[in-house]
Design a protein that fits this description.
Layout: H1 3-11, E1 15-16, H2 29-35, E2 52-59, E3 62-65, H3 79-82, E4 91-101, E5 105-113, H4 116-129, E6 136-140, H5 142-148, E7 156-164, H6 170-182, E8 186-193, H7 225-228, E9 245-247
Antiparallel strand pairs: 1-4, 2-3, 2-4, 4-9, 5-7, 5-8, 6-7
The structure holds flavin-adenine dinucleotide.
């Protein structure tokens, strides 16, 4: 099952796997597990390893399944045999995955820096170590920013995002922005969305540090880059919610 198909099915239940490698559109759940894929635009549980609870595979010796529940802390985890196996042990046919409620509270900002290294060793490190728990804290160098249409290619961009299925996250974004500004960052766009926001386009204008309130997207891709980072045209952008459940 490919990424968009998987998210379409979870969306019907207001759930998400929240795993977005750049190959999301064409790569499969089995392929993610077989290659230990890592999601982009994400901090926290970004590797597929974190999201797998149990795996089934057809092996040369027959059907194989790792233990699902009850969990076990004894010995090596059998899931690890299949994670990253690149197909050499068998074909992964099913997986129990940890999914989570789709986030409805979202707060995002784009912060410009003059220098990539300063931003990386200053703002990004401090924000990640702050335990504010951003869903996105991604640094894009000027060339990539220009290529993606996220900027004019002259500045390093920090893409900041917070989201939750349960509680507003605008205050967390404000704190992260304060850290970034202290490290020389300049906010170029910012938006905060909640479950009660109504239709319409998202705030994309430069804000001079002020927060815009706008509505959640009702389209099939609430976590798309356009949703999270208005100035990014059409690329995907994830984050994490705060609760999780499991499903196959
Ligand atoms: C443009 C682009 C962007 C990418 N971005 C990322 C990224 O952000 N993060 C990342 O981690 N990787 C990325 N990749 C690498 C790759 O897409 C991922 O590793 C992805 O997880 C592969 O999944 P797939 O379904 O496309 O597998 P395939 O490419 O078809 O196969 C990859 C390997 O997994 C094995 N395999 C596939 N399905 C199964 C299965 N069901 N059971 C057993 N073995 C299987 C294959 O035999 C092969 O060895 C990217 C690749 C491209 C081309």
């Amino acid at each position: 099952m490919r990424g968009p198909n998987l998210e379409d099915q979870l969306r019907e239940h207001d759930l998400t796997l929240r795993h977005y490698p750049q190959s999301f559109e064409y790569a499969t759940l089995g392929g993610w597990i077989a290659t230990r894929a890592g999601g982009h635009f994400a901090t926290g549980e970004t590797h597929i390893d974190d999201l797998v609870e149990s795996v089934s595979a057809i092996t040369p010796a027959g059907q194989w399944q790792s233990r699902r529940l009850p969990g076990s802390g004894a010995g090596p985890s059998p899931d690890r045999m299949l994670l990253g196996s690149e197909g050499i042990l068998g074909v992964i046919t099913e997986a129990w995955m940890k999914v989570r409620p789709r986030p409805v509270f979202k707060a995002t900002a784009v912060v410009e820096f003059d220098d990539f290294a300063t931003a990386a060793t200053g703002a990004v490190r401090l924000i990640v170590q702050s335990r504010l728990g951003p869903s996105n804290c991604r640094l894009i160098d000027p060339l990539e920013a220009g290529t993606m249409g996220a900027g004019d290619g002259s500045a390093t961009l920090l893409l900041l995002g917070f989201e939750s299925a349960d509680v507003p996250v605008g205050g967390l974004l404000d704190q992260a922005i304060a850290i970034a500004a202290d490290q020389g960052g300049r906010v170029t766009s910012q938006s905060v969305k909640g479950p009660d926001s109504e239709g319409g386009e998202e705030a994309a204008a430069p804000t001079n540090g002020r927060t815009h309130f706008s509505s959640p997207r009702t389209s099939a891709t609430p976590s798309s880059p356009a949703a999270c980072f208005p100035r990014l045209s059409r690329r995907r952008s994830p984050g994490t919610g705060s609760r999780s459940s499991t499903g196959r």
